[in-house]
Amino acid sequence: MALVPRARRPAVIVAATVLAAVASSCGTPSPEAFLSQSDKALEDASSAVATTGTALDQLRFHKLPVPYGRVVVTEQEEALGSTQQSYTASQPPESEQAVYDSTSDLLEDASGLVTEARIAVQRGQRSTYARIRADLAEVGSQIAEAREEIATAEAAG
User: Fold this and answer.
1) In the chain, pLDDT over 70 holds for what percent of residues?
2) 110 and 80 in contact (C-beta within 8 Å)?
3) What pTM did the predictor assign?
4) In whole angstroms, what is the distance from residue 137 CA to residue 54 CA?
């Protein structure tokens, strides 16, 4: 790590402050952009939920090798975690707070179920796969409904 000479430290501090101010001023997207971002996060969650559900079905009926099933479910958990983290770190416009709250809740629910699936697969708890699969299907339906509501809001906006 290179040290900044004392004479240049004030310039470095000023530059860092300016960068921070510029970055923070770009924090709130337009309502339209935020709705699009919400839809994309839900689309990603829907994909992770569907893929995890399919993997559980295949594992339950011995149509997928367990090591591969573990990889599939773990990858879905990681992808969904990244989506959730990115989305919840965003700054919603005040007018879209309800969309932010409901989308965040759905991402949390989906993430929790995919994590539950990963744990069950790692432990070989086949008896829980059907219940987890049903729960994934339910959250998948809720995600689809939320995406329809966002599409309606986008069309009206």
Assistant:
1) 83
2) yes
3) 0.82
4) 10
